[in-house]
Amino acid sequence: MNNKKAINAGEMTITFSPELEQMLGRLMQEKTAATQKVAAPIMDQDYVERDHCNHNPTDPIRSLDDIERLKNYFLNRKGWMNNNIRDYAYFVFSLNMCRRAGDILALHVYDILNPDGSFKTHVTFDHEQKTGKKSIVLLNTKARDALTLYFNTLGQYKMSDWLFPNGKKPTEPMSVDGMRRMLQRAAKALNIDMHMGTHSLRKTNPYHMISTSTDTQDEVMVSQFLQHSNIRTTYHYIKRDQSEMDAFIESHGL
Fold it and tell me: N or C terminus of the chain: which is more exposed, having fewer CB within 10 Å?
């Protein structure tokens, strides 16, 4: 029938053009593919990090002034002083540890202090929750200073206490979602226009480390510090915003 297909339906004959026939064939194939399954694939680390990059909208804190404003906000806002100092210590500690919120909130006092009250030189994360990797991070001066203020404010505490306990339920740690909401309230109060989340604190220091560096080897150091399996994930952490990109293009005009 000249490249047309006919189907008898009772007394009616339906004729299909080749294009329509191909479209119906594709629809049938898609339907079959949607219901046909094989063994579920392994969620390998490269996929997890790629998926994280595609779905995590949080930004680093790009302005050093905003970082200082946030510190001052936690120290000076109205409310229960212990919670304020806890949030300040969490903020500074997270900025310098560059670990995920779940791993930081899983820490106890004994992960930070020796029995005599002195600080450990490093914080050991035996099994990071997302990757299962072990990481050892220097407890630098900025982090120690914030924690010193925090511990001195607490008064009495036990070695087995959570490092950042829930204010209403001290036997439980603060939740990731609780800390996310706390950070978002702070950014809103200071009119900081960004996608704030707990992961913003993991991204911030790497962003500034690479932005101020003139040595490309520093990018490798930052990637290793973050325990990334490839440097492409690290580049995602330092993604430039539109204003930075505009300034870069303007300054390199020909």
Answer: C
